[in-house]
Amino acid sequence: MNNIGEPWMWGAFIAFILAMLALDLFVFGGRKAHKVSVREAAAWSLVWVSMALAFNGLLWWHLNGTLGPEVANAKSVEFLTGYVIEKSLSVDNVFVFLMIFSAFHVAPEYQRRALVYGVLGAIVLRAVMILAGAWVVSEFHWVLYLFGVFLVITGMRMLVMAEKEPELEKNPVLKFARRHLRISEGHHGEKFTVMKNGVRYFTPLFLVLILIEVSDLVFAVDSIPAIFAITTDPFIVFTSNIFAIMGLRALYFLLVDMADRFHLLKYGLAMVLTFIGAKMLIAPWYHVPTPASLAVVAILIATSAAASLIATRKRR
């Protein structure tokens, strides 16, 4: 069964996400400038992982009662595998976000607001891309093989370019923004725009927000085809992706102070993309079971993380 999402399920999930975003913005201090501590980031990371697992449990319970245990088991494993893949690939976002904030010298207490709005934009962008991708795959199944080729090439490219830092000043989007927008000098707290002599200027933090949105779009081009290798069910793809994105901000603040200790993770992520791409390409001859895919992804990420910690232990 390739589509389990009933209209009420879509509506309930979207309402839940909007409610959580509203709580973050207006209740839990999302609009207040403050430096997010490791304890706060760890707590929110635990909350989002727990919510994803609870959602998966509720999904299994509902499907078990309506479509039977076979469908329930299959879909719950697909969700968990997709969530682990998206969560793992989002670690690469953390390294890029850190580079962007460092390049623009954004103080830690002002980073949260940019990430809050970055998550909002990412949700909209990914929703559009997932729904469009689901339609394309349903109409033209051979597109999955193009996704496979793309992921293998991307994974190999990541292996080669893992140690190379991108040059922000050469980013075409940033150059276009600076050429066509009035950019103020210096920082202005959490403001994205300021008024000077009756003229509105954009702040450097607005440029940071643009780069965050663009970077997430680039990562979505990699991660969304990856999850289509696990399932073509748009509801599973959407929910697992959004849960991973909602926990991205907390993951950033959790890892930001020790990102240098996980430098080998990039190699693990590159191998994950290569494996998933290869899985899609060999599908006509051999279908890799979803639990096996989950195991391979978990082993690659765990191994690269452990190797990173071991390699940097003496340096610390």
Short synopsis of the structure:
With 316 residues, the chain is mostly helical.
Describe the fold and architecture.
The chain has one domain. The protein contains 11 helices and 2 strands. The chain has helices at residues 7-26, 38-66, 69-103, 108-139, 143-161, 172-180, 204-228, 234-246, 248-255, 265-281, 290-313; strands spanning 193-196, 199-202. The model has no long low-confidence stretch (mean pLDDT 81). Strands 1-2 form a two-stranded antiparallel ribbon. It starts with 6 loop residues before the first helix and ends with a helix. It is an all-alpha fold and 316 residues long. The radius of gyration is 20 Å and the shape is globular. Strand 1 (193-196) and strand 2 (199-202) form a beta hairpin.
How would you describe this structure in keywords?
11 helices; 316 residues; two-stranded antiparallel ribbon; globular; mainly alpha
- Low-pLDDT residue intervals, each spanning 5 or more residues: none
Helicity range of the residues? Answer: over 70%
Instruction: Give the N-to-C terminal Cα separation.
Output: 50 Å
Mean pLDDT: 81
Round the Cα radius of gyration to an integer and report it.
20 Å
Q: Kindly state the number of beta strands.
A: 2
Topology as H/E string?
Answer: HHHHHHEEHHHHH
Please, how many helices? 11
Backbone structural class: mainly alpha
Q: Strand order within the widest sheet? A: 1-2
Question: How many domains would you count in the coordinates?
Answer: 1
Strand residue percentage = under 5%
Shape: globular
